[in-house]
Amino acid sequence: MDCEGTVIISCGTLTSEDIICKILGVETLPESIASDYAVKGYLWNCKNKYYSTKINLYALEEKTELDLSFCNNIKAVIFYFDTQKQSSFDDVASWLPYLKDIDSEVQLLLCNDCPEENSNPALERKNILKWCIENQYELVELNPVPESDDEDEQTFNCAKGFDRVIEALQSYAWADLVFEEDKPSASGKEKGNSSASNKDGCKTLKVEDLELDLEEKWLDDVLRGEDPGGESFEALFAKFASMKERASGLTGDDRKKYAEKVAIAFWRATGGNEDEIEGLDDSDE
């Protein structure tokens, strides 16, 4: 109950529990964790090639005032709605006042699909996307209409459906992450006080240092010709702001080498021609 969590709210036919089953990868939900709130909670032992952590997934079904301590532990909000029903979309908006005390880093608006044209113009894709931009939500279609000959989608290898939901949740630096160390740092030493090793050889990182370490691993994986988790471009793009901030703190050759490293990583992640970046220094030195 002390770990951070995600609130999942359904305003359509797919229930919150259905969504949690998909995230957990199970047919039947496990026993609900104990809670003093008007929610059902389920523990997700989240693990990928970079880290493992525990995340509580909460199915919130009643519009009620939430305890502040509960809100402080919620870092992601997921809505589901039906694009064929105005009342379903209106219900999403009606929930927002009850979530005002939640400072969520990940906000997803799920639907089965979101067509460009709709019998109800208010539910057309452009209007849903406008709402998402205004409220800082990402639109995720669980069963998007196939787009044949969409070269950009093929190049960027963007995750779709529930794969994107899981990817978005895993992109956040959750508290108490255990980072899977697979190589020493360039200096051959551990970085400052950013971590402590456990008996299994894994490293528990402070949240403020995790972003930098994950960023470095994504960059290094792409530079080695790997596609980290099948989402190299998405991962790099999401980290662009932090990369830019880091570069601004460097000077001289260090700044130039880092900028080249980022440029090469982005180029390879988007499937660029190697001949066009010939001469750039992409070494780890």
Automatic annotation (TrEMBL):
InterPro entries recorded for this chain? Alpha/Gamma-adaptin-bd_p34
Q: Which domain of life is it from?
A: Eukaryota
Q: Which PANTHER family match?
A: ALPHA- AND GAMMA-ADAPTIN-BINDING PROTEIN P34 (PTHR14659)
What is this protein identified as? Alpha- and gamma-adaptin-binding protein p34 like protein
